[in-house]
């Protein structure tokens, strides 16, 4: 008889599942504030009751229909005495509301079921009925409200049989899913007659690394077919083990290539199931995602409606699940499309989402990587554009509290009733005071802050108490609601504060007097990324810019002895690309003004040789604007430029101008911006790109602190803090040119720093043979003319 480990918390659900998505539904993990309240109450009980024990492990195996379920849990409190008493602690900002909910769902609420399961296991072991007590703790004042419960064995066993029956069906379903996936693995074939040049080598490398159970980092340029070359073997391998593959990108907008790849694979007869994950805000049917039954009719009785209409069965019938399907069901049955989407993760064979679903600190990431009951294998993880992950992961743990943010919302409170205005003005002013208190007196430059973790946490409690009463009111929650934004803003900061408080050296917290903000800065998130990788069988990351590999592997958290790295050259004919390096130009900050004329001359003379669409990528908006206002372009050219703030509509409008074939364009944009990464300028949309120096990050106090950390831990402070991140942006920008085998294009690097080894070691191996000196031309215009000549 096979044993299935299962937590009592996961067991304790109504059967069939009913209810709403709600604050007090009992579904989902407890917030950090609740954990602190638990611990405070337990410490008090230890002092007052010598016979009290907290966090007592309980476990028991129950046989049901030839399945052995090994149940485990932790009892919050156990009082030994004449009659043993088991206590489960729950918290609420509004205890009476929770008490009312518990009364309405007596016995069937997850909190009741969890407590009864503890009592039932004790009864099985001792044949004595324990006292059961559900202790509700107020998060406002820590007052305790005891709710005794009598254990009715017959009624409990009726529920338990039904619930275990559900689990048996889940196991059977998982076994069917494993067989289905293994069958599809044998049917999954490469969708083209012949792989592209080097694509076969790429697939072999991925396959070899997976057989050896080695994580992998792959640098491969555009045109190789790397998405297909990586996803195909990764998916085939995971399906052969009866598991899924999770494919993640930095942004939702980058999903389409993966979706197209999946569609191609499905078209050849492998009917595996795909799921494209969409963010809660984009899926939400309301103006603002406030997930309570009072504020949202789609949250009200969500689980009941899903059960009554068997919506998961409807989803299982489709091979491709995406936002439009979930919104259609939401409109038809008034259910939450986001929660329905997440419920489909277990039976999807390939899941496409953004980084947040795997690496963020939210509850959603654990749901995506979870191994379903009855499954034993872990999924594969494919990370697209992984060069973004070091900075993206550091951002997860680097929130700030900016005084201007709070001052802005002080002016947005006029629409609220006076009772809310008065209270909120007081809270916001307290927030501002706490930020200022972190500063050292008389210091006008950025410095390490002096903070009171206790005071910051207390303020979070105040904000959450206020939010609770606000959400219970009859006010309509509008889009971008200020109160929601304020509370989330503060909570994000205190969540990251947990890591600072634990003494991790990757973090520091500072006050910036000029910007009037308090910020937590994470220098290195690799410690946390490594924890996430444990959820996966194979991890494969790829990008067009992953050199030097040791830099990325360390900050990505894949710097293990068995890491396999591979670089592939461009599959396109070398004669279709011309690379030039012009070292006579300096784009160092101190030299910029004196080099503007020289930069303009280089651009205008080169584009005059072959009119068309050219991009000029700058290290900053300030430098872009300086050159833009002085350049005199040839008469046939039209100037376009990226603005500091642009809507998606504005960006699309500029891109449409590039498609006007009767005109030539010089497009000024910034490296690392929306026009420099993730967009394909195919054919004549872009025939050349000027890279105006490496876009070194701004030299500031925070960056210098990070540089010190990198020097201490990796002996490469300047490289890790400045050079390598800049070169990734420069190479990504250069890669916008030549996107297909028929494209021809020119790439011009302006700055002598590109000659230095610390910079050139980041470049793709097919840019030069021995060193970047080969890219310097003795006759630039003549070489450009030869490249564009018809004979070429």
Automatic annotation (TrEMBL):
- Cite the GO molecular-function annotations of the record: 4 iron, 4 sulfur cluster binding; 5'-3' DNA helicase activity; ATP binding; DNA binding; hydrolase activity, acting on acid anhydrides, in phosphorus-containing anhydrides; metal ion binding
Listed EC numbers: 5.6.2.3
Q: Which family does it belong to?
A: Belongs to the helicase family. DinG subfamily.
Catalytic activity of the protein = ATP + H2O = ADP + phosphate + H(+)
The superkingdom of the source organism is Bacteria
Q: Which InterPro entries match?
A: ATP-dep_Helicase_C, DEAD/DEAH_box_helicase_dom, DinG/Rad3-like, Helic_SF1/SF2_ATP-bd_DinG/Rad3, Helicase-like_DEXD_c2, Helicase_ATP-bd, P-loop_NTPase, PDDEXK-like_dom_sf
Name of the molecule in the record: DNA 5'-3' helicase
| Gene3D superfamilies xref list | 1.10.275.40, 3.90.320.10, Bacterial XPD DNA helicase, FeS cluster domain, P-loop containing nucleotide triphosphate hydrolases
Which top class of enzyme applies to this chain? isomerase
Domain (Helicase ATP-binding) ranges: 185-431
Biological process annotations from GO = DNA repair
What keywords sit in the KW lines?
4Fe-4S, ATP-binding, DNA damage, DNA repair, DNA-binding, Helicase, Hydrolase, Iron, Iron-sulfur, Isomerase, Metal-binding, Nucleotide-binding
Pfam families of this UniProt entry? DEAD (PF00270), DEAD_2 (PF06733), Helicase_C_2 (PF13307)
Requisite cofactors: [4Fe-4S] cluster
Name the residues that span the membrane: none
């Amino acid at each position: 008889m096979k044993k299935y480990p299962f937590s009592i918390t996961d067991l304790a659900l109504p059967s069939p599942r009913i209810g709403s998505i709600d604050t007090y539904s009992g579904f989902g993990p407890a917030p950090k504030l609740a954990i602190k309240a638990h611990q405070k109450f337990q410490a008090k009980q230890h002092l007052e009751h010598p016979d009290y024990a907290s966090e007592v492990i309980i476990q028991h195996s129950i046989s049901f229909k030839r399945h052995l379920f090994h149940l485990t849990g932790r009892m919050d409190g156990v009082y030994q005495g004449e009659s043993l008493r088991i206590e489960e602690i729950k918290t609420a900002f509004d205890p009476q509301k929770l008490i009312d909910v518990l009364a309405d769902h007596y016995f069937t609420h997850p909190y009741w079921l969890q407590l009864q399961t503890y009592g039932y296991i004790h009864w099985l072991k001792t044949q004595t009925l324990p006292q059961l007590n559900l202790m509700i703790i107020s998060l406002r004042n820590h007052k305790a409200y005891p709710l005794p419960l009598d254990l009715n064995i017959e009624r409990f066993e009726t529920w338990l049989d039904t619930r275990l029956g559900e689990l048996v069906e889940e196991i059977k379903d998982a076994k069917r899913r494993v067989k289905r996936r293994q069958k599809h693995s044998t049917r999954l074939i490469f969708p083209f007659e012949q792989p592209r040049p080097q694509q076969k080598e790429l697939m072999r490398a991925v396959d070899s690394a997976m057989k050896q159970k080695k994580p992998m980092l792959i640098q491969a340029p555009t045109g190789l077919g790397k998405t297909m070359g990586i996803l195909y073997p990764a998916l085939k391998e995971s399906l052969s083990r009866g598991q899924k593959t999770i494919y993640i990108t930095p942004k939702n907008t980058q999903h389409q290539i993966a979706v197209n790849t999946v569609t191609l694979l499905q078209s050849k007869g492998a009917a595996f199931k795909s799921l494209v994950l969409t963010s809660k805000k984009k899926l939400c049917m309301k103006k603002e995602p406030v997930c309570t039954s009072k504020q949202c009719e789609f949250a009200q009785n969500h689980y009941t409606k899903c059960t009554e209409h068997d919506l998961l069965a409807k989803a299982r019938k489709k091979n491709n699940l995406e936002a439009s399907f979930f919104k259609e069901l939401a409109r038809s049955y008034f259910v939450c499309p986001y929660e329905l989407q997440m419920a489909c993760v277990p039976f999807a064979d390939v899941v496409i989402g953004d980084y947040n679903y795997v690496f963020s600190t939210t509850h959603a990431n654990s749901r995506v990587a979870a191994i379903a009951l009855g499954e034993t294998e872990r999924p594969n993880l494919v990370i697209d554009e992984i060069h973004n992950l070091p900075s993206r992961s550091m951002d997860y743990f680097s929130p700030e509290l900016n005084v201007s943010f709070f001052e802005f919302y002080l002016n947005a409170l006029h629409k609220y009733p006076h009772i809310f205005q008065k209270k909120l003005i007081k809270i916001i002013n307290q927030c501002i005071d706490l930020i200022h208190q972190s500063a050292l007196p008389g210091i006008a430059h950025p410095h390490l802050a002096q903070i009171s973790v206790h005071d910051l946490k207390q303020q979070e409690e105040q904000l959450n108490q206020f939010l609770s009463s606000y959400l219970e009111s009859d006010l309509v929650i509008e889009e971008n609601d200020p109160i929601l934004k304020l509370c989330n803003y503060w909570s994000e900061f205190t969540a990251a504060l947990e890591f600072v408080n634990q003494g991790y050296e990757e973090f520091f917290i500072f006050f910036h007097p000029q910007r009037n903000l308090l910020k937590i800065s994470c220098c290195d998130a690799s410690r946390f990324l490594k924890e996430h990788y444990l959820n996966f069988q194979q991890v494969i990351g790829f990008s067009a810019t992953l050199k030097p590999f040791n830099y990325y592997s360390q900050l990505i958290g894949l710097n293990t002895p068995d890491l396999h790295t591979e670089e592939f050259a461009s599959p396109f004919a070398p004669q279709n690309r011309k690379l030039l390096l012009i070292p006579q130009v300096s784009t160092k900050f101190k030299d910029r003004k004196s080099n503007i004329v020289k930069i303009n001359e280089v651009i205008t003379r080169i584009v005059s040789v072959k009119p068309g669409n050219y991009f000029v990528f700058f290290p900053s908006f300030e430098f872009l604007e300086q050159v833009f206002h002085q350049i005199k372009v040839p008469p046939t050219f039209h100037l376009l430029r990226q603005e500091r703030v642009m809507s998606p509509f504005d960006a699309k409008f500029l891109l449409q101008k590039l498609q006007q074939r009767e005109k030539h364009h010089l497009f000024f944009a910034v490296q690392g911006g929306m026009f420099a990464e993730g967009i394909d300028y195919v054919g004549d949309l872009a025939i050349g790109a000027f890279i105006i120096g490496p876009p070194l990050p701004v030299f500031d106090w925070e960056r210098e602190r990070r540089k010190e950390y990198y020097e201490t831990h990796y002996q490469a402070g300047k490289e890790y803090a400045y050079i390598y991140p800049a070169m990734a942006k420069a190479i990504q920008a250069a890669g916008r040119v030549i996107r297909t085998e028929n494209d021809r294009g020119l790439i011009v690097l302006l700055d002598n720093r590109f000659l230095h080894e610390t910079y050139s070691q980041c470049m793709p191996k097919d840019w030069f043979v021995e060193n970047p000196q080969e890219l310097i031309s003795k006759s630039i215009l003549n070489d450009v003319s030869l490249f564009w000549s018809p004979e070429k």
